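#onboarding

Welcome to the new folks! Below is a worked example of what a typical request in this channel looks like: someone posts a single protein sequence, and someone else replies with the predicted structure as tokens. Don't worry about understanding the tokens yet, we'll cover that in week two.

Example request:
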Amino acid sequence: MTVIAAILTSALASFVISSVWYSVLDRDRASDGRPSPLRIVAEFGRSALVAGAIVGLAKAMDIATIGPMLLLALVLWVAFPFVLLSGSVMWDKVPVATAARHGGDWLIKLLAVGTIVGLWL
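Example response:
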């Protein structure tokens, strides 16, 4: 039950963090109106998938406190969102501001998931 609670709580936190992040930083998207229910469910599912993967890594690595979880979250951010987003800037001509906006969202979400998982496990 603890694992499921950690995943669901982390997914919900990620979902809320992204919603607030983009509503504050992405005014153009906010003017497009509210996302459809299908997109909301899909986004929550994506958040749950990431949270589940992090919980699985934490369990496999026997990490159960906040400090090591935050370090894992930071390493995961550098290894995945940062690398992918910086590559999109270098190779796909994505504007740096766009990549930074998405990268910041991922950093905050991963640190939140790390904190929650560190508290739950």
